[in-house]
Amino acid sequence: MGRDLLRFATAGSVDDGKSTLVGRLLYDTKSVLADQIEAVHRASVDKGLATPDLSLLVDGLRAEREQGITIDVAYRYFATDKRTFVLADTPGHVQYTRNTVTGASTAELAILLVDARKGVIEQTKRHAAVLALLGVPRLVLAVNKIDLVDYDEGTFEVIAKEFTHHATTLGYAGGSVVAIPVSALVGDNVVEHSANTPWYAGPTLLDHLETVPVEPDPHEAPFRFPVQYVIRPRTPEFPDYRGYAGQVAAGTVRPGDEVVVQPAGVRTTVTRIDTPDGELLEAVAGRSVTLILADDIDISRGDLIASATEPPELTDELPATLAWLADKPLRAGARVLVKSGAKTVQAMVTELRTRFDEQKLSTHDNPEALALNEIGQVSLRLAEQLPVDRYTSHGRTGAFLVIDPADGTTLAAGLVGAPLPLLDKV
Predict the structure, then answer these.
(1) 212-220 contacts: CB < 8 A, separation 24 or more?
(2) With b meaning 16 or more CB within 10 Å and e meaning fewer, what string describes 346-382?
(3) How far apart are CA 9 and CA 99, in angstroms?
(4) How many domains does the chain have?
(5) Which alpha helices (H) appear in 173-324, and where do they start and end?
(6) CA-to-CA distance for 244 and 246, rounded, in angstroms?
(7) CB 303 within 8 A of CB 260
(8) The domain spanning residue 412 has which CATH number?
(9) From start to end of 100-185, where are the E strands?
(10) Are residue 24 and residue 161 in the same domain, yes or no?
(11) Per residue in 203-256, pLDDT tens?
(12) Closest Cα to residue 113, out of 26, 60, 31, 180?
């Protein structure tokens, strides 16, 4: 069995040191090539720095380096002997909340950075609220630049206590939040324990990333298979072949399993699992395969093949949370397209129920509109029924896109039934 996989995201305010922390992780785990390290050393010398600027390992675009900011989501892949990692490094500017949504949408853990000199600020609380909304189950508070406060234990304890209290109000239980004092620049408690913090007995950041439980296991979830393509060769070699191609979104499927085809609701049995390399005895989440079914059923692109014992809900009334990504505000009555898996249906926004106010860290009932980067709960009426799951239970089949029917642009990322953070209402 291969190493397990942890998807995690980083977030924090501008200049808290996210890029340097990620660069330190890559550098100290020897996850970068020698020529990349050499290029960083040369660039650092050119900038007059005495130590390597490890943020250059992350800020790959020249324009970003010149501005000193990262303006999109940068995905990084690395591995240790214990685990493989996919990291989404998101920007810190408040106007890039939509990128935080993108980076954190598949994360099982998020690292929030705070500057030890500044402590928990409003943007830290905003990021934590968005992460709670997206159902990210675990948080790490990296109290960075601990060297600039002389490795003071009291400063760390005050910041850790304040953040843990805020996370608790968002629904995080005690063991799901961990605070670690680090210096990304020097390397304190990132990969190796630091002698400068003898008062800290917890894990290093890498220790925690390598040992934190990865849950839930998508292989153990109820089976979900959005049909991407129907294969019917109609050749002399395959006169009666009918296969349904796609990627297993969740769960595991084996020949002999009983499944239900949604939205028709017809039950049948999987008889074979085909791939270009031959038949499989089972297919797990993330595997692209072609399913052969026992019965001749009218199935088309966009249909969902699912576990017969734990099927998704069929509905044409969709309560959802939207992260609005478009310049044009969303208002009740708007007509849109909803794309779930490979299926696209017409829909109308019947109600704007609640809007999350990032600036005030509060929620408003019955707002007039949702603007760019805002998050809110809405009700959608669909032109036809869709099989959906709650996002907090099934991320792949509980997420959807909202599309402009006029030009096909993406307007919002949607989460089925996801609650907004528990904050004071205005």
Answers:
(1) 212/6, 212/109, 212/138, 214/4, 214/5, 214/6, 214/108, 215/108, 215/137, 218/250, 218/251, 218/284, 218/285, 218/286, 218/396, 219/251, 219/252, 219/284, 219/285, 220/251, 220/252
(2) ebebeebbbbbbbeebebbeebeebeebbbbbbebeb
(3) 11
(4) 3
(5) 205-211
(6) 7
(7) no
(8) 2.40.30.10
(9) 109-115, 139-144, 177-181
(10) yes
(11) 999 999 999 987 655 667 899 999 999 998 877 777 788 999 999 988 999 999
(12) 180
List pLDDT tens digits, range 328-338. 999 999 999 99
Q: How many angstroms separate the CA atoms of 151 and 184, rounded?
A: 13
Name residue 236's amino acid: P
Token code pair at residue 170? 């968002």
Q: Give the model's pLDDT for residue 152.
A: 97
Residue with tokens 């905003």: 126
The residue type at 85: F
What residues contact 168, with CB distance under 8 A and at least 6 apart? 174, 177
Q: Looking at this protein, which amino acid is placed at residue 96?
A: Y
Q: Sign of the CA dihedral 320, 321, 327, 333? A: positive
Average pLDDT, the chain: 83
Residues 6+ apart with CB under 8 A from 274: 243, 280, 289, 290, 291, 292
Backbone dihedral angles phi then psi of residue 278, each to the nearest 5 degrees: 120, -175
For residue 9, the enclosing domain spans 4-215
**Cis preceding-peptide flag for 216 (omega within 30 of 0):** yes
225 in the same domain as 89: no
> Is residue 184 packed enough to be buried (19+ CB in 10 Å), middle (13-18) or exposed (0-12)?
buried
Helix (H) or strand (E) holding 176: none
Other Cβ atoms within 10 Å of 215 Cβ, number: 10
* Rg of the chain over all Cα atoms, to the nearest angstrom: 24
DSSP-derived 3-state class of residue 392: coil
Q: Measure the CA–CA gap between 131 and 107, rounded to whole angstroms.
A: 9
pLDDT tens digit string along 92-128? Answer: 544 455 566 666 767 889 999 999 999 998 878 878 8
Domain boundary residue, one of 167, 193, 215 = 215
Read off the tokens for 142: 């990296």
Give the pair of three-digit tokens for residue 143.
Answer: 């109290």
Same domain, 262 and 173: no
DSSP assignment, residue 65? H
Q: Is 16 left (phi over 0), alpha (psi -120 to 50) or beta?
A: alpha
d(CA 151, CA 401): 46
* Cα(228)–Cα(249) distance, integer angstroms: 12
Do 20 and 185 contact (CB within 8 A), yes or no? yes
